[in-house]
């Protein structure tokens, strides 16, 4: 089967969408979550399987919330030798129409159109395989029961060597397709519940473990990288302060020499006080030397203060480097411990998987034991039924009389059916009952006796005419006579039974449903 075009209107959250599919290859429909991709598949399935007047919950669910409109689905499909356009409207003003384009034009509506499509699909489509390959996002992915799939059966027979040629007009590649799809699906998912298995399960677990390990290592790496980024700055600061300390030591030595020179000048000045008048020039020079000496002493104090500050900065930088080295060592120890925890978790996962396999085998054994017990119980019931059936006895006269009564009852039933009015009940909403029994789909009833049809706020009572009532009374009398005739036959079947054996049988007793016995319904 190939879908050429699919159009939906007022279907769930889709106001209107029209999709045309390529005549060859594969068409992929993509879109955001909740955009209506799964709704398109659901609409095609509803079109092919459900009548337009259905009141199922699955049909009511596709009507847009808060809008009193009909949900419409139109599809152009090729299936075997047929190509047709199929339309249905659900929920409001239901309608069905079918236009067959090939091989012979046809135009059908209503129930006839639905039944015609059913005939086409039965003749050209492996429905079991179609259901198995239809996976929706909103439901659990199940491969489905393929025991009734003719395509799968042919593929398995050919794989076993039972057939050598195509028996259904399909190519060998088509027959291999199902086996390949099933094998590929079971490579990643379980066949029963569609859960991840094999390579996919291992990959998902490995991905989860790897993601956790990567996150931990990224955190450790970020810490180490931060410490590493700080090391060059610390080392540069240490080198800078060491160079500054060396320069300041040289400056201190120079200033000390200048101070010594100044002291010598002061000494000479003291010796020349007696000859101040003659040594004016020396006095001026001495005064200048004193001023320079004061400046040198101030510079010496500032240099000593700078040296002390440099030493404190160097010591702080050394402490930062030592702390960074200790932190790096701690991070290395934490990384080793994380690797050990990862190995332990992997061992626990392997142990848990083995325990799950053992538990699954035990559950399967319990199910098989229950099945065997049920089979034994049914075999015992069958043996008892065979023994009871062997004790039934009836004379030729009883059998002849029963046959005559059956014929008379059949004739009376035919007269009742011919004379009784036919009542067709079609529920258009909920709450419809016929003689107290709920009705959901259209039914046809022969009103041989008074019949009550109840709906919301109304009751319709159908009363047959005098002739129909007389025929129904005649039929009831014949059934009563048949019951009286069969009762002695049942009683004779219990005569001559020995002591200790049961004296009751399930024979041709009257059936409260319609007045017929179980044996009459069987005939």
Explain how this protein is built.
This protein has eleven helices and twelve strands. It has helices at residues 37-49, 57-60, 110-124, 127-132, 150-160, 172-188, 198-271, 280-390, 396-419, 466-492, 518-522, and strands spanning 2-11, 14-20, 71-79, 82-90, 95-102, 106-109, 422-425, 433-434, 437-438, 443-446, 451-455, 458-462. It has a six-stranded antiparallel β-sheet, covered by helices on one side. Strand 1 (2-11) and strand 2 (14-20) form a beta hairpin. Helix 5 crosses helix 6 (172-188), helix 7 packs antiparallel against helix 8 and helix 9 (396-419) runs antiparallel to helix 10. It is elongated, with a radius of gyration of 51 Å. Residues 165-169 and 490-523 have low confidence and may be disordered.
Keywords:
523 residues; alpha+beta; six-stranded antiparallel beta sheet; four-stranded antiparallel beta sheet; 12 strands
What's a concise summary of this model?
It is built from eleven helices and twelve strands. It has 523 residues and is of the alpha+beta class.
Strand share of the residues? 5-15%
Shape: elongated
**Physical arrangement of strands within the biggest beta sheet:** 2-1-3-4-5-6
Question: Helical percent range?
Answer: 55-70%
Mean pLDDT level: 77
The major beta sheet can be summarized as: 6 strands, antiparallel
Low-confidence stretches: 165-169, 490-523
The ordered H/E elements are EEHHEEEEHHHHHHHEEEEEEHH
User: How many DSSP-defined strands?
Assistant: 12
The number of helical runs is 11
- End-to-end CA span: 43 Å
Label the structural class: alpha+beta
Compute the gyration radius: what is it? 51 Å
């Amino acid at each position: 089967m190939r879908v050429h075009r699919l159009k939906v209107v007022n279907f769930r959250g889709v106001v209107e969408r029209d999709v045309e599919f390529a005549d060859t290859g594969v068409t992929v429909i993509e879109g955001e979550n909740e955009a209506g991709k799964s709704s398109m598949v659901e609409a095609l399935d509803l079109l092919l399987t459900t009548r337009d007047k259905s009141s199922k919950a699955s049909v009511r669910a596709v009507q847009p919330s808060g809008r009193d409109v009909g949900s419409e689905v139109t599809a152009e499909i090729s299936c075997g030798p047929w190509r047709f356009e199929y339309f249905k409207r659900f929920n409001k003003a239901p309608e069905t129409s079918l236009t067959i384009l090939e091989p012979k034009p046809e135009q059908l509506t209503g129930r006839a159109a639905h039944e015609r499509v059913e005939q086409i699909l039965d003749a050209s489509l492996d429905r079991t395989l179609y259901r198995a390959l239809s996976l929706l996002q909103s439901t659990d992915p199940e491969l489905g029961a393929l025991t009734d799939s003719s395509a799968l059966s042919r593929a398995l027979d050919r794989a076993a060597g039972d057939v050598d040629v195509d028996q259904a007009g399909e190519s060998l590649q088509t027959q291999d397709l199902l086996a390949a799809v099933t094998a590929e699906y079971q490579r990643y998912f379980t066949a029963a519940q569609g859960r991840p298995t094999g390579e996919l399960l291992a990959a998902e677990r490995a991905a989860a473990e790897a993601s956790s390990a990567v996150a931990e290592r990224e955190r450790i790496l970020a810490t180490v990288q931060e410490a590493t980024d700080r090391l060059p700055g610390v080392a540069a600061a240490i080198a800078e302060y060491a160079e500054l300390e060396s320069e300041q030591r040289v400056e201190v030595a120079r200033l000390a020499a200048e101070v010594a020179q100044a002291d010598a000048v002061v000494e000479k000045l003291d010796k020349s006080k007696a000859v101040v008048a003659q040594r004016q020039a020396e006095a001026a020079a001495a005064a200048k030397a004193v001023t320079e000496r004061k400046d040198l002493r101030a510079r010496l104090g500032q240099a000593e203060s700078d040296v002390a500050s440099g030493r404190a900065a160097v010591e702080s930088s050394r402490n930062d480097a030592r702390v960074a080295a200790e932190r790096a060592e701690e991070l290395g120890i934490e990384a080793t411990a994380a690797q050990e925890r990862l190995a332990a978790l992997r061992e626990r996962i392997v142990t848990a998987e083995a325990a799950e396999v053992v538990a699954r085998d035990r559950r399967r054994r319990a199910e098989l034991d229950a099945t065997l017990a049920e089979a034994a119980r049914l075999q015992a019931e069958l043996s008892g039924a065979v023994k009871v059936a062997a004790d039934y006895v009836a004379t030729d006269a009883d059998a002849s009389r029963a046959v005559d009564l059956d014929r008379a009852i059949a004739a009376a039933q035919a007269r009742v059916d011919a004379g009784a009015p036919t009542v067709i009940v079609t529920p258009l909403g909920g709450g419809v009952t016929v003689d107290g029994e709920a009705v959901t789909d259209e039914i046809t009833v022969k009103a041989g006796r008074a019949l009550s049809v109840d709906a919301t706020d109304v009751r319709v009572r159908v009363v047959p005419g005098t002739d129909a009532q007389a025929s129904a009374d005649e039929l009831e009398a014949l059934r009563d006579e048949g019951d009286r005739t069969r009762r002695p036959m049942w009683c004779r079947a219990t005569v001559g039974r020995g002591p200790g054996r049961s004296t009751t049988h399930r024979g041709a007793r009257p059936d409260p449903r319609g007045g017929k016995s179980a044996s009459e319904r069987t005939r």
